[in-house]
Amino acid sequence: MRQCNKIVIYLLNIGFTLSSIVISSSITRIAFASFIGTAIEYYDFYIYGMASALVIGPVFFPEGAPEVQVFSAFLTFSIAFLSRPFGAMLFGHFGDRIGRKSTLIVSLLLMGLSTTFIGCLPGYNEIGILAPILLCFFRFGQGIGLGGEWGGAALFATENAPIGKRGLYGMFPQLGPPVGFILATCSFLILTKLLTVEEFNNWGWRIPFIASALLVLIGLYIRVSLSETPVFEKFLQKGIRVCLPILGIFKSHLAPLLLGALAMVVCYALFYISTVFSLSYGTTKLKIPRQSFLEMLSIAIFFMALATPISAWAADKWGRRPILLISATGVFISGFILEPMMSTGSPYLITILLSIQLFLMGATFSPMGALLPELFPAHLRYTGAGTAYNLGGIIGASFAPYIAQRLVTEGGLAWVGGYVSIAALISLIAVYFISETRHNEW
């Protein structure tokens, strides 16, 4: 417990250092406010993904065989993705009616509380069947909050963007995943260095979940001080307000909604196959030490961060559509190299594979921050962009680790590579039918 206290104090010091940063320019405030929510989102999701690959099964489903425990843990991973579209519709409704700022604050609060409660939840051995039931409940609540987060963050960034720079500003929320991933991975790396395997499995895995509350406080502090976006204020002054935005989406903008969701499939599938599934497979089947694989992923995620601004700049210069078509084609090809590189068991080759795939993830994900909001008019934009983003999550990510685990069990790694290529093909077709959006009226 003394080591636990040291870890908590260390994390608190980091948080207070971050909160003391002076954010003076409006661009910096917009960037940080847009970025912090998605950083927390991916931090929350990835610590759960890592926990589901490592400890959720034994803690909450101890009665099954090890393989059944992994399957059960990955199924709970999917619950938050299934609830996210409902969160997008709920928060999108209020975001399109009362404003982006207040809705973003509530969604962030719900997301953080759900994650913190997961960290405090007793296991099956303490409270029996109630443990997995409460786990699913908090995962559902986490998904509702997350469903309202991305759409609001993307709109806050792009609706404050100068002409010709929506792709660049839309990049801010897209930087959240690599940063959240690094925070999550580093937290688990620190714990694996300081704790024994028994200590980590018993209580250490909970610390990153509880630490999420600190990140949420920092995000709330930043967002409370912001003003409403000029685009929202403009159409509010005109008296443009729809009673039920989701009905307006289904009635007049169903095609952009579906195409936007399908365009997102490749991003989600690639990210969670490259991270959650690969972590589980690498540590169990390939017998790569947990700490070593986390370090490999930490190297690979920097390539995603590198690709994000490059892709955003290119999307402003040449358009969203060509960049997405090129990137998705690269993902399609990468599916064919997954089996030959990962099956070697070589940490060096696997790190190269993960770096390639996460670079392509950044290249496909970055333009989405501008593309999805540009598909919808201002009075329906929060609902439309958020719902498209999260519907893509159901198709591309909710069952991705579970499906990959089944595929590798039934047919081997080549089938997992085929799964990645099929996801890329789905998005390629969707992007092909989307008209270029960078010159759309705002």
Report on this model:
By secondary structure, the chain is an all-alpha fold. It is 83% helix and 0% strand.
CATH architecture: Up-down Bundle
Per DSSP E runs of 2 or more residues, the count of β-strands stands at 0
Q: What count of helical segments does DSSP give? A: 21
Backbone structural class: mainly alpha
Tell me the overall shape.
globular
The fraction of residues in strands falls at: under 5%
What is the chain-wise order of helices and strands? Answer: HHHHHHHHHHHHHHHHHHHHH
- Cα distance, first to last residue? 54 Å
CATH superfamily: MFS general substrate transporter like domains
Q: What percentage of residues falls in helices of 4 or more residues?
A: over 70%
- Low-confidence segments, given as residue ranges, are 7-12, 14-25
Largest sheet features: none
Task: Kindly report the CATH topology.
Answer: Growth Hormone, Chain: A
CATH class: Mainly Alpha
Q: Roughly what is the average pLDDT, rounded to an integer?
A: 85
In total, the number of domains comes to 1
Q: What is the C-alpha radius of gyration, as a whole number of Å?
A: 21 Å
Helix-strand layout with pairing:
Layout: H1 2-19, H2 26-54, H3 56-60, H4 66-97, H5 100-120, H6 124-127, H7 130-158, H8 166-174, H9 176-194, H10 197-204, H11 206-224, H12 230-237, H13 245-252, H14 254-284, H15 290-318, H16 320-342, H17 347-365, H18 368-374, H19 381-398, H20 400-410, H21 413-432
Task: Give a quick precis of the structure.
The protein is mainly α and 442 residues long. It is 83% helix and 0% strand.
